[in-house]
Amino acid sequence: MRPLAAIEAELDALALAPEQLLAVSEEILENWITARGQVPTTAVSEGFRLLALQRQGARGVPSFNACRESCREIAYHFNLLRTQPAHGEAAKRRRMMALLVKHLVLFVRGKLEVEGLGEFCCSSRPLRVESSVEKRTEGPYDG
Question: What does each C-alpha distance from 35 to 26, 40, 44, 74, 111 come to in angstroms?
Fold first, then answer.
């Protein structure tokens, strides 16, 4: 399994096919699950291993559900690209799928760095709250 930084670099450098983007998405979630000391599932949910991995990754970590819609959107775009490869919007759809995969890798990296990042994907509210508490307790208010 590749580190998330290597996956992110690959996403930035290459134009990946939908099958590759789906495989990379699964690898991203495998990183999260492995880091939590679990074995990534081989099960499929709604026709996608990605969705089964997301479900597994969210067990015991409710805030991880924030990436559920990103995973569902990745699956949706994969289906669009697989069933309508010559559609006039195919390039835009592939780009959107790639952006969703990039979003997923950033979310998981953030969760690995600071578990409990927030209730919403990419939210830094707990970090803002902690920094404002630190500022209030650093010294007296001089008015």
Answer: 14, 10, 21, 23, 11
- For residue 7, which phi and psi values (nearest 5 degrees)? -65, -45
Tell me which long-range contacts 134-140 makes (C-beta under 8 A, separation of at least 24).
none
pLDDT digits (tens, 9 = 90+) for 35-74: 888 999 999 999 999 999 999 999 988 888 999 999 999 9
- 8 Å CB contact between 68 and 61: no
Q: In angstroms, rounded to a whole number, what is the distance separating the alpha carbons of residues 24 and 18?
A: 10
Helices (H), the chain: 4-13, 18-35, 49-58, 68-83, 90-113, 125-138
Report the 10 Å Cβ neighbour count for 9. 12
Q: Residue ranges per domain, the chain?
A: 4-138
**Of 36, 26, 21, 38, nearest in space to 1 by CA:** 26
Sequence-distant contacts of 121-129: CB under 8 A, at least 24 apart:
121/66, 121/67, 121/70, 123/66
Across the strands, what pairs with 48? 45
Mean of all residue pLDDT scores within the chain = 82
DSSP H or E segment with residue 45: none
